[in-house]
Amino acid sequence: MSFTLATWNINSVRLRAGLVQKLMAEEAPDVLCLQECKSPVEKMPLEAFAAAGYRHVVARGQKGYNGVAILSKLPIEDVGDRDFASLGHARHVAGRLENGVVVHNFYVPAGGDVPDRAQNEKFGQKLDYLAEMRDWFRTEGFAKSILVGDLNIAPREDDVWNHKQLLKVVSHTPVEVERLAEVQEAGGWVDITRQDLPEGNLYSWWSYRSSDWDGADKGRRLDHVWATPDIASAGHSSRILRAARGWEQPSDHAPVFASFDL
After folding, report:
1. Contact (Cβ atoms closer than 8 angstroms) between residue 78 and residue 103
2. CA-to-CA distance for 37 and 60, rounded, in angstroms?
3. In degrees rounded to 5, what are phi and psi of residue 33?
4. Which residues, listed in sequence order, are joined to residue 224 by a DSSP beta bridge?
């Protein structure tokens, strides 16, 4: 079974339903994972997505904030969610495809603006969320799984436009990068994007604050596709659809793709 998967922080699925449909029509991934849907599940435009061929849905939502959804052309079974750090947020959901692969869709907290948990509660919540992810992967053990989503951390020096300038900026601070590395190591996760594209600057997010986002290119790679070691070698054809950041009324994130032959 071969399939293509995409992950995209859509920044309001109702506001940008047309962009989701555009992606479905032009790129047609078999599985599309969305984050920051900002909608209860019952108010997501699921009928429009079903009309585009995405009839299978596993989602968790809430009004105005957070929210994660897996939209699939392929049958997918809801296998639950976890409330990491007990935040009461819709930030994780998992679905199992018919070939047994479990897709985990995550939206890790952004962490606010100040990288100090004593001064910024949101930064502490982010670190706690990542710590609980790490502990879960250590205790449970995972196989035949794919982890995708907006992890809100750009781990490598070439995952940001300027490593030195961003060392004290939330999403690239050493403590966050270290915590994400612990999460990855705990599950033995393989970064499929960097397995395919090991060298060079690579970004999936550009701030709305930059009017010339494309020319200035001050991006960060916050969106990720990982896989467990038993299926990592089946991953290929990774890419970031940078053009989507330039669509009308876009999300500040671009979709990240990978294909798997399993």
Report:
1. no
2. 9
3. -105, 125
4. 149
- Please count the structural domains in the chain: 1
User: Side by side, which strands form the sheet with 92-97?
Assistant: 76-78, 92-97, 102-107, 145-150, 223-227, 190-191
- This prediction has a pTM of 0.98
The predicted structure's pLDDT at residue 155? 98
**Rounded Cα distance, 24 and 32, in Å:** 8
Instruction: Spell 1-25 as b/e; 16+ CB within 10 A means b.
Output: eebbbbbbbbbebeebbebbbebbe
* pLDDT, mean of each 10-residue run, the chain (262 residues): 98 98 98 98 98 98 97 98 98 98 98 97 98 97 96 98 98 98 98 98 97 96 98 98 98 98 96
Q: Which amino acid is at 110?
A: A
Q: What is the pLDDT of residue 117?
A: 95
Alpha-carbon torsion angle 217, 220, 225, 226, nearest 10 = 140
Helix (H) or strand (E) holding 3: strand 2-9
The DSSP code sequence of 121-164 is HHHHHHHHHHHHHHHHHHHH---SEEEEEE-----SGGGBS-HH
* Containing structural domain, residue 88: 2-261
Here the CATH number for the domain that contains residue 166 is 3.60.10.10
Distance CA 146, CA 135 (A): 18
Angle between helices 174-187 and 121-140 (to 10 degrees): 20
Q: Which of 159, 65, 62 shows the shortest CA–CA distance to 110?
A: 65
- At 65 the pLDDT is 96
